[in-house]
Amino acid sequence: MTTAPAKPIKLVVACALIDADNRVLLAQRPEGRKMAGLWEFPGGKVEQGETPESALIRELEEELGITLPARCLAPLTFASHAYEDFHLLMPLYISRTWEGDPEPLEFQALKWVRAARLRDYEMPPADLPLIPILQDWL
Ligand SMILES: Nc1nc2c([nH]c(=O)n2[C@@H]2O[C@H](COP(=O)(O)OP(=O)(O)OP(=O)(O)O)[C@@H](O)[C@H]2O)c(=O)[nH]1
């Protein structure tokens, strides 16, 4: 019997930013990248030497221009999804508090979305199981 070779696990951290109207921030992936045009939670890969929290704080600063102290991040849930060439493991944090107005520095667009409307936005397959969890929570 043969077993398929294990895919590398890619550790990506992401955050559901929630505004005063209880809407969640979705970001549209830029042109020219894999899954361009899909809507995702801001975040990115954990690099060597980083904790998940420090990676997320760095990504939110680079991608959105916001400052978010680690104490403002709470763990919400995670995604575990087999893509073709890697297995994605993505802790999803949640936050209601940060400094600055999110700007689409590395995205095509940003959108504040009500929980009930999340399915109107096409998201990467790994994110689909996260939607009902967020809807229950919000
Ligand atoms: N930030 C973020 N990434 C997500 C989400 N859902 C999801 O499948 N991903 C995947 O997680 C990976 C994030 O890596 P990345 O931010 O460094 O983006 P990337 O496309 O440049 O990755 P690459 O450098 O391997 O090509 C991508 O493969 C992206 O498709 C999500 O909601 N937020």
Describe the structure.
Belongs to the Nudix hydrolase family. The chain is an alpha+beta fold and 138 residues long. It has a single domain (9-137), classed as Nucleoside Triphosphate Pyrophosphohydrolase (Alpha-Beta Complex). It has two helices and seven strands; from the N terminus they run ββββαβββα. It has helices at 52-64, 130-137; strands at 9-17, 24-28, 39-40, 43-45, 74-82, 87-95, 109-113. It has a four-stranded mixed sheet with strand order 4-1-6-5, sandwiched between helices. A three-stranded antiparallel sheet has the order 3-2-7, with no helix packed on it. β5 (74-82) and β6 form a beta hairpin. The longest helix is centred in the middle third of the chain and has 13 residues, at 52-64. The chain is globular, with a radius of gyration of 15 Å. The mean pLDDT is 96. The structure holds 8-OXO-guanosine-5'-triphosphate. 8-OXO-guanosine-5'-triphosphate binds at residues 12, 14, 33-35, 40-41, 43-45, 88, 90, 124, 126-127.
CA-to-CA gap between the ends?
47 Å
User: Strands of the biggest beta sheet: in what spatial order?
Assistant: 4-1-6-5
CATH superfamily grouping? Nucleoside Triphosphate Pyrophosphohydrolase
What's the number of domains? Answer: 1
Q: According to CATH, what is the class?
A: Alpha Beta
Overall, the morphology is: globular
Rg, Cα atoms, Å: 15 Å
What is the string of helix and strand elements? EEEEHEEEH
Structural class: alpha+beta
CATH topology: Nucleoside Triphosphate Pyrophosphohydrolase
Number of helices: 2
Query: Mind describing the biggest β-sheet?
Result: 4 strands, mixed
**Ligand identities:** 8-OXO-guanosine-5'-triphosphate
Number of strands: 7
Unreliable spans are none
**Proportion of residues in helical segments:** 10-25%
- The overall average pLDDT, rounded, is 96
Beta-strand percentage range: 25-35%
Family: Belongs to the Nudix hydrolase family.
Protein name: 8-oxo-dGTP diphosphatase
Catalytic activity: 8-oxo-GTP + H2O = 8-oxo-GMP + diphosphate + H(+); 8-oxo-dGTP + H2O = 8-oxo-dGMP + diphosphate + H(+)
Domain Nudix hydrolase: 8-136
